[in-house]
Design a protein that fits this description.
It contains 18 helices and 17 strands. The chain is an alpha/beta fold. The structure holds adenosine-5'-diphosphate-glucose (ADQ). The site of adenosine-5'-diphosphate-glucose has 18 residues, from strand 12, strand 13 and helix 14. Adenosine-5'-diphosphate-glucose binds next to strand 12, strand 13 and helix 14.
């Protein structure tokens, strides 16, 4: 459904290219396609209208060879892959530093985790300039340039300095913080003005958009914001900037297809075979302090203490995917998680009969991931804060019999859309999450199906293709009233969380 979108050439820009480039044992470059929703959704659009994907190839090795390898491997694809070269120092200060030690924690409301090193900001600007130079070399006047995520917030400003006049859109995959938190950023004014150099800024949720609007109203002179619905208009001086909420999603139909494959079904059978007569609870997250894994483990322990009837009747399968291991905070987090798992298993294990937590620290194949989604009767998706959280949507899509229960943090972007089906929890409320585990455990089939059906209907309608299509249309539409809010998405309260 790539309908009615503008037909200009598309230039997609992201921190990383959607292909992993690495040298094999024969010293030859090997290119493997990346996976994930963004790649799945954007590659058909790029093929359809032609275009370029620009990004860092993930290695600081000599770039000339890589450009050639990328060009050769992608010759017949209908779009080009263009690398941006980064040095080790740039990767350290721009990627690990400013992006992941300043913006990532601050935008997830964890200011105490921030390292506001001034050299990080300097290199962030330089690297954004580097991306802009590559874009300026590659783009033509009528191209639509779509920049992704918090690593590249300065790119539009740099492009304007380089004289690029094309329309430029930006999508922020992570949350946008409230004014009080954003004000802590030493470079708050520069960054806010940089974002306003885009023609369209997309956020994951209405809450993120509202935070951004609050920031520009408070911090930018001569700004007015009008409109209602999915896309607003801000007038800043003589410029018009569009500001929208576009919840990212998944390729729903492909998930169903893959989740019903023979290999997945066999693996589900094996899982139930080794862990019989109980409900399985799944936690699957990148190793990241925003995902709330220690709080979740504490809640699981609390449920075992307060509801002894759960003993031997539930098992938590916690999978942690290695991530950002060069940053010390991530290393410490892994140690904390592993100590907690050890304590809980030490406290409750019944020798030869029951181990409460099965813990894995590794990447999974697609088949394994889908098998865990299908096999586990309950999912615990309890981030302290999350832009969207695709695991929640993937879990629902894979629930083919619609008998599984999703326990979801109020602070995941997905909560606004899935609030009519998920058991919403505050991840800081240990007893509340423990109660939700018990509620999920005893929930009857009819209620499970009703809840899961509502969530799947919404995810199926607002899938990844809807997301791409609505963003690209919002960039050019004359009439913004054609962009109503998502049906399930209408916030019931001003703070988007349920109140009693
Ligand atoms: P992430 O923080 O990475 O994404 P999420 O949205 O949950 O979080 O996406 C994780 C992805 O990794 C999922 O697509 C999942 O299939 C995959 N995955 C999970 N476990 C895996 C495993 N063991 N092996 C391999 N793959 C695994 C950021 C933001 C989110 C936002 C997304 C998209 O932090 O809030 O939803 O971008 O915008």
């Amino acid at each position: 459904m790539i309908s009615q979108t503008p037909k200009e050439r598309l230039i997609v820009v992201s921190n990383r290219l959607p292909f992993v480039v690495r040298k094999g044992s024969d010293k030859q470059w090997k290119i493997t396609p990346g996976s994930g929703g963004l790649v799945t959704a954007l590659l058909p659009v790029l093929r359809d209208r032609g275009g370029i994907w620009i990004g860092w190839p993930g290695t600081t090795d000599k770039i000339d060879d890589i450009s050639q390898v990328l060009a050769d491997s992608n010759r017949d694809a209908g779009y080009a892959l263009v690398p941006v070269a980064l040095t080790d120092d740039e990767v350290h200060k721009f990627y690990q530093g400013f992006s992941n030690e300043v913006i990532w924690p601050l935008f997830h409301d964890l200011q105490s985790h921030c390292n506001f090193d001034p050299s990080y900001w300097q290199v962030y600007k330089e690297v954004n300039h580097k991306y802009a130079q590559v874009i300026a070399r590659q783009s033509k006047e009528n191209d639509f340039i779509w920049v992704h995520d918090y690593h590249l917030m300065n790119v539009a400003t740099e492009l304007r300095h380089l004289g690029v006049r094309s329309r430029i859109g930006f999508f922020l995959h992570i949350p946008f913080p409230s004014l009080d938190i954003f004000l802590k950023l030493p470079w708050r004014f520069e960054l806010l003005h940089a974002l306003l150099d885009y023609d369209l800024i997309g956020f994951q949720t209405l809450r993120d958009r509202r935070n951004f609007v609050q920031c520009i109203r408070a911090m930018v002179k001569h700004v007015t914001v009008q409109g209602k619905g999915q896309v607003l208009t801000a007038n800043v001086g003589d410029r018009e900037v569009r500001i929208g909420a576009f919840s990212i999603s998944i390729d729903y139909n492909t998930f169903i297809e893959e989740a019903t494959g023979a290999e997945v079904i066999e693996k589900v059978r094996q899982l139930h075979g080794v862990l019989p007569d109980r409900q399985l609870i799944l936690g699957v997250d990148r190793l990241d302090y925003t995902k709330g894994i220690p709080n979740r483990l504490e809640a699981f322990r609390n449920a075992l203490v307060r509801y002894p009837e759960l003993h031997r009747r539930i098992t938590l399968i916690q999978i942690v995917v290695p991530s950002r291991e060069d940053i010390p905070k991530y290393h410490d987090l892994r140690t904390t998680i592993e100590q907690m798992v050890g304590h809980i298993n030490g406290e409750f294990t019944k020798f030869g009969r029951w181990v409460p937590i099965h813990y894995m620290f590794r990447n999974l194949t697609r088949v394994e991931l889908l098998a865990y989604y299908r096999a586990c009767e309950i999912a615990l998706v309890t981030p302290l804060k999350d832009g969207m959280n695709l695991v929640a949507k993937e879990y629902c899509a894979s629930s083919i019999k619609e008998e599984n229960v999703l326990i979801l943090s109020e602070f995941a972007g997905a909560a606004a859309q899935l609030q009519n089906g998920a058991l919403l929890v505050n991840p800081y409320d240990i007893e509340g999450v423990a109660d939700a585990i018990y509620q999920a455990f005893v929930m009857d089939k009819a209620e499970r199906q009703g809840r899961m059906r509502r969530m799947r209907r919404s995810i199926s309608k607002y899938n990844i293709f809807w997301w791409v299509d609505s963003f690209l249309r919002a960039a050019i539409a004359k009439d913004l009233s054609a962009f109503p809010l998502m049906e399930d998405y209408v916030p019931k309260t001003d703070i988007d969380v349920p109140v009693i």
